[in-house]
Amino acid sequence: MADNQATLTIGDTSYDLPVMKGSEGPDVVDIRKLYGISDHFTFDPGFTSTASCESALTFIDGDKGVLLHRGYSIEELSEKSSFMEVSYLLLNGELPDEKQLKDFSYTISRHTMLHEQLATFYRGFRRDAHPMAIMCGVVGALSAFYHDSTDISDPNHRMISSHRLIAKMPTIAAMAYKYSVGQPFIYPDNSLSYTGNFLRMTFGVPAEPYVVNPVIERALDRIFILHADHEQNASTSTVAGAGSLGTYPFAVISAGFACLWGPAHVGATGAALNMLREIGTPDRIPHYIERAKDKNDPFRLMGFGHRVYKNYDPRATVMQKTVREVLSELKVNDPIFDVALQLEEMALNDPYFIEKKLFPNVDFYSGIILSAIGFPTEMFTVLFALSRTVGWVAQWNEMISDPGQKIGRPRQLYTGPSLRPYPSIAQR
Ligand code: ACO
After folding, report:
1. Among 140, 132, 108, 134, CA closest to 122
2. pTM of the entire predicted model
3. Quick one: which of 266, 297, 213 has its CA closest to 381?
């Protein structure tokens, strides 16, 4: 709603623009009519000053290190809720009561199996294919199998598709892993929790029973919660862009996968882990800190810095605690955890990092946990995409239900040649 007005003056003419207020965060200047009234566009290539939608799902205050889902802090959610509860919250707006949670978990568990034909898709890939390449293909291919839930104007169809996507993602991801290691696919076991089932499908084998370790199950569930949604980040905006044209839900989510695969997105987890391994021992940390500060060296501390968080990424705090739990449960004495802790401490006391507001992000510690659990680096992004699926579908549902929703179609500042005569081939 417009509570205020902004005035923009271009040359001799002033334009009044409404200012809209949200429940939290900066007000926004509503420029939707600017082009019509002034014949000007605005220019903001990285969308650093542009709100692309109204949303009631997730709020981030990057300066204060705050992340809220539907008003609840990420610290409290990751401590007290399960991933299923957070998924329900994101999709429906409120935390579920006991019965709602039971019903929701049951509904999700009913959709965990994949159409058997989809298993043959995997065999079309090379064994050394990156699992994200497989995920992009298989998730997109779901559109060819579930025709009964693709009418996006029907809220019921949208909800069924959303449930299918959330439910099938662990199965698809575990199969991508199994294919890469040459082991048989493991079918879902709906008596297990969402995360326990995923662990079994990933690490279980048909030859022996798989017992889910509750500490690892809880740790991974927490990692899923930490990645469930993150406001209008690049992959969510990609999903919104694709979804704004009425594209089928499964194809829309596969666009999210393609975007999330980028090394500048969550790909930094593997890079942070590799960096910690390369540093190896605490005595080598100062050398790497110096390299990170050197303008002539392209090296950056991976897992440090964030486009939005300029204080502390609250997810990194939860992650640091989770590393301790996992390493102690698995009795892993990984020296790189010490390297990580000392690197964090040294960097946070270094004027370069203080001045530039560079703090550990969620990726800094997550690689240590995931590798201790047994996931290869290539699977890290898959795990984040699996959990982000709930955020993508929740944001997509919110967007489609918005009566004011428009096709996502930015404009540009054209810098090419103006109209010129076409030369014949002999004249070129
Ligand atoms: N190490 C050393 N210096 C850094 C780092 C870093 N990790 N990150 C930023 N800087 C410096 C830059 O050199 C730049 O310095 P300058 O102003 O003197 O040129 C300044 O800090 C600002 O950096 P930008 O890249 O402009 O900041 P931006 O907000 O665009 O980038 C980003 C954020 C991409 C995350 C960056 O901090 C980075 O590359 N970090 C390492 C990779 C990483 O951890 N990515 C994970 C992101 S979190 C996620 O995807 C869930």
Report:
1. 134
2. 0.92
3. 266
> How many whole angstroms separate alpha carbon 427 and alpha carbon 399?
52
What is the residue type of 270?
G
Per-residue model confidence as pLDDT tens digits over 161-198:
999 999 999 999 999 999 999 999 999 999 999 999 99
Phi–psi pair at 253, nearest 5 degrees: -70, -30
CA distance 371 to 284: 22
The predicted-structure confidence for 353-404, as pLDDT tens digits, reads as follows 999 989 898 888 898 899 999 999 999 999 999 999 999 999 999 999 999 8
Which residue is catalytic, options 306, 313, 334, 338?
306
**Which residues surround ligand 1 with Cβ inside 6 Å?**
264-266, 268, 292, 300-307, 356, 358, 361-363
